[in-house]
# Entry
Amino acid sequence: MSRLKEEWIEQLETRLPPKERIVDRNIAITAQYAAWYLQKPELFKWAGMAAFASRQVGIALAFSELMHAPEQMVLQEETPDEGFWFDPGKLLRSAVNNLFSVPSFMHSIAARQLFLADLDEIRRGNNNIYSDIAWAHAAYLECGIGEIENNCRGEEDEFMLSGFRMIDEGAHMLEKGGNNDEARRVIWAGNVLLLRHEQLNTLQPVFDAISQQGRIVVSFGSELDFSGAVENSQHAKASFSTYSGYFETLTGTKSVTDAQHRWQWIEHDVLPAWERVDCPFCEGSHLKKQLESFVAGEAALSHHVAQYAANLFRIP
# Structure
């Protein structure tokens, strides 16, 4: 049944925990992206990559939770049917065991509040992307391309509407059994347009609001880790600081908050890595199992938070 864009957004919002449950909400967003990819892996390439990106944001948000008030974190008991479960006490112990005094050090520095404010901007970006693009996936699945055409307006036309039109064109090509390679090329190009809409229209205002110091920290924390989704994980990570150079990232010469620097990294490092991961998708593949774990809310946060903080404090 046809709906207004605002109704689609409201419907999807009801599937998420409230915004104050920061980590649980992120896990739910990640799960929804993963579920859409698993439903249409031949079409929803953006959603699959967004699941990994959202998981990475969740790691930063969980680290933020540690910094807010680690002394207040205690074990939580919650039955499985009450929704996603985050055990901050267990997470804290695991992170401290792996990082020794890093969380307490961050807790004591003068810039802590500024850093937390920057992480809050990242949380806002995670929510904004979901609100801005997720509705179109639900609308396409239920009603087709016409529903997106009826609801897109203004700046959404250039990238998002054009992207879904290309995805739909590729879907029809696959149905007719024509040139599958050309169909996949069209579908991939359409998903890249969705990514451009996300990066330029939705995410850039969030990056613009981050402090100068925070831009360096966020740049070092920007990494897409697909290693659990492939058998050979040698080329399954895309790190902004590795691609751009440690010195350039540290000095701010290259920053993930700069749209040009970020898109260059995405185009030359992130997209090729994701394409290598996406191509061999099949029943029983590592990618399918990884995304199914996202859908189940299995974030394995303690290990990844430790790695995230280690990246921030590594010494060359």
Notes: The two ends are 56 Å apart (CA to CA). Residues 12 and 135 are 7 Å apart (CA to CA). Strands lie at 223-225, 237-239. The chain has one domain: 5-313.
